[in-house]
Write a structure and sequence with these properties.
The complex is a heterodimer of chains A (185) and B (325).
Chain A: E1 29-35, H1 39-54, E2 58-64, H2 69-84, E3 88-94, H3 97-112, E4 117-122, H4 126-135, E5 142-146, H5 155-173, H6 178-181
Parallel strand pairs in A: 1-2, 1-3, 3-4, 4-5
Helix pairs in contact in A: 1-5, 3-4
Chain B: H1 16-26, E1 33-37, E2 42-45, H2 46-56, H3 63-74, H4 80-85, E3 91-97, H5 100-103, H6 120-135, H7 151-154, E4 156-159, H8 170-173, E5 180-186, E6 190-193, H9 200-211, E7 228-232, H10 234-243, H11 247-257, E8 259-261, H12 267-275, E9 284-286, E10 294-298, E11 306-311, E12 319-322
Parallel strand pairs in B: 3-4, 7-10
Antiparallel strand pairs in B: 1-2, 3-5, 5-12, 6-11, 7-11, 8-9
Classes of the chains: A alpha/beta (185), B alpha+beta (325).
Chain lengths: 185, 325
């Protein structure tokens, strides 16, 4: 009998649980991971940060830049230090192939510390984000999906999108607040 | 194909017997772990390399090169996770130095970037099948490449014509003398033609200015750094070396000329580029940060007239590894 050997590899052990809910916002430290690629994510996250601060949270931004070589090692140390002093993490933006890869990698790092974590991607890259999370061993990773295309829109329009998505974002993140529990408009 | 293992070309069935023969010829233990490959974060063992290499039509004597290449690509500096997922059309190009070029018949003369019959095609295809089957790089699923590139089928595997180079071999300059492989994240290959120049500065001007096109990833307002690679044919290399016997001077010349004035870019690009600190006092933006980031090698036919440029994807840093048996 001829035996054909399998050239492929199997998936890592999977965690389907989304991890802890974000819960209350007041008095909590929230890390928002932004990047050097997407101005639209800067615009969305500044609206969300303003709203989170209004609910009593303390928000810290961290910008992901070069992730290879010495610069990358330094970035990993900075990001790890930020996560160590944060109560929850918002990680974006998956809006291309490589940036979705890094967004999910950074979200998985945050989730692995046990803090409530949510990744953010645009609709075109939702499938990639879910695939990478699954292949990274955490298919349950929370993901909030923004419209696509996003980065070609003017700032005012992106701000409107951020405001319109804020409530559903809170729900996806498991936030307990009056606003999150209101039904969508 | 039905199993999802293929690239569209016929495959050689990886029977137990064929894989065993390959492993014996390759002289490695099957359970040896070579690397963990993203996005699947899968363990790539010698056996997995052998199975895919058999499917691609490789022979066992390529095993040391395959293992070294996979190891280089899995180095965190290379950012294989991003490279395998990107919308870009990047593929790891493998440049081979040392006597192993001749032992494996890796092309470095005429047609070295494609078209010449060589085992390099099967070696490149084996690497691509490993990316597909072991690493899990699949278009539309884990790879978002908008166009892809022909190099994603049989790779880009070529050598340096060290015997005709007036400078030390690329890998040796990168600290790895002898048999070595350099993994470089290439956005395909492009040709530079010049039928007028007859001086070192003339050839280098044409190469540098051709490399400086605004859509190159190195000019992205989001790119903190990039590298670039050019292959110079031996006829031009000989002329260039008479004026610039030190390769560092060739790199410095290319780096200097491979730049664009900032006012060449539309206004909306200027602030992001300035924020990265990339505008020099003379108002120019260089494709790559430093002269060392211009990789230069000698390869190609004796017909001259052409150089080849391989732009880098950006965030992946070139990695050179020794090829050991």
């Amino acid at each position: 009998m001829t035996i054909i050997l399998d050239p492929g590899a199997s998936l890592a052990h999977d965690i389907a649980d989304p991890g802890p809910d974000a819960g209350e916002l007041a008095g909590r430290k929230i890390a928002i991971r932004i990047d050097m690629l997407w101005r639209s994510w800067d615009w969305v996250s500044e609206i969300w940060a303003e709203a989170l601060r209004a609910e009593g949270a303390e928000v810290t931004f961290w910008r992901s830049c070069g992730r290879t070589g010495e610069e990358g090692e330094q970035a990993d140390r900075e990001y790890g230090a930020l996560l160590a002093q944060s109560d929850m993490a918002i990680v974006g933006l998956g809006n291309c192939g490589s940036c979705t890869s890094w967004t999910i990698a950074d979200a998985l790092t945050a989730a692995a510390t046990g803090i409530p974590t949510i990744a953010v991607a645009t609709a075109h890259f939702e499938g990639l984000a879910n695939n990478l999370a699954k292949r990274g061993g955490r298919s349950g990773l929370r993901l909030h999906v923004l419209p696509y295309p996003l980065d070609i829109l003017p700032k005012e329009q992106v701000h409107d999108i951020a405001r319109n998505h804020y409530r559903s974002f809170l729900r996806n993140f498991g936030v307990r607040s009056g606003l999150a529990e209101q039904s969508a408009a | 194909m039905a199993q999802g293992w293929g690239d569209g070309l016929p495959l050689i069935p990886p029977t137990q017997e064929r894989v065993q023969d390959f492993l014996i010829a390759g002289g490695r233990f099957p359970d040896e772990l070579i690397a963990v490959l993203p996005p699947l974060r899968a363990e790539c063992t010698v056996e997995k390399i052998a199975i895919n290499a058999v499917m691609a039509g490789c022979t066992g004597d390529a095993m040391p090169l395959l293992c070294a290449a996979i190891g280089a690509m899995a180095d965190s500096k290379f950012d294989l996770a991003g490279l395998n997922a990107t919308t870009g059309s990047v593929v790891p190009a493998l440049i081979v130095n040392g006597p192993i070029r001749n032992r494996l018949d890796i092309p470095y003369q005429a047609g070295c970037l494609g078209g010449v019959a060589s085992p390099a095609v099967a070696i490149g295809r084996a690497i691509r099948l490993i990316m597909r089957n072991v690493a899990g790089q699949l278009i539309g699923s884990t790879s978002q490449s908008v166009y892809g590139t022909p190099g994603r089928v049989a790779g880009i595997v070529f050598g340096e014509w060290e015997e005709r180079s007036p400078w030390a071999p690329l890998a040796e300059r990168r600290g790895v003398p002898g048999d070595a492989v350099t993994a470089y994240g290439a956005m395909g290959t492009a040709n530079i033609c010049d039928v007028v120049a007859n001086s070192a500065d003339g050839f280098l001007d044409m190469i540098a200015k051709s490399m400086a096109y605004p859509g190159a990833n190195g000019f992205l307002p989001s790119s903190a750094f990039a590298e670039t690679l050019c292959a110079i044919n031996p006829i031009w290399a000989e002329v260039i070396a008479k004026t610039y016997p030190r390769i560092e001077d060739v790199q410095a010349y290319l780096w200097d000329k491979c730049a664009l004035p900032i006012d060449w870019f539309r206004p909306e690009y200027r602030d992001p580029i300035a924020n990265l600190g990339r505008i020099k006092p003379d108002g120019r933006v260089h494709l790559v940060p430093m002269p060392d980031d211009v990789l230069v090698m000698v390869a190609g036919g004796e017909g001259g007239l052409h150089a080849a440029m391989l732009h880098s994807w950006g965030t992946c840093l070139t990695v050179t590894r020794p090829v050991t048996v």
